[in-house]
Amino acid sequence: MKIIIRSQSELPIYAQIMEQIRSQILKGEITEGTVLPSIRKLAKETGVSVITTTRAYSELEAAGFITSVPGKGSIVLPQDNALLREQYLKQIEEYLTEAIRTAELIKLDRSELSDMLEALWESKED
């Protein structure tokens, strides 16, 4: 598991850790049943406080990505396909919302934005 903390990021450090672990789980890079590094070990490896890693793991647990098992640590839960799809849909919505905001800044109308999306979609199929 690789975690990179960016001091220039707008995200708080705990959110950077959480998002990177979440992303690795969703991509299948960290698989079901994997025991994550202990909170203390992750804090040491990333150079952040134990409080920060505790919050990241707590958020991941609340979101249903991991569970904490006393004596064993934090374990990656199986990912339900419906949950996985919902997570990706949420991410797409966030990206599209940002694209709409950016388009509005330069007075790009809906049809032009739609044409861009269509062109990008077609070009990825090549």
Description of the structure:
The protein is mainly alpha-helical and 126 residues long. The chain has 2 domains: 13-76, Winged helix-like DNA-binding domain superfamily/Winged helix DNA-binding domain (Arc Repressor Mutant, subunit A, Orthogonal Bundle), CATH 1.10.10; 81-124. Helices cover 60% and strands 6% of the residues. The protein contains 5 helices and 2 strands; from the N terminus they run αααββαα. It has helices spanning 13-26, 39-46, 50-62, 81-105, 110-124; strands at 66-69, 73-76. A two-stranded antiparallel sheet has the order 1-2. Helix 1 crosses helix 3 (50-62) and helix 2 packs across helix 3. The longest helix is centred in the last third of the chain and has 25 residues, at 81-105. The radius of gyration is 18 Å and the shape is elongated. 14% of the residues are buried. The mean pLDDT is 91.
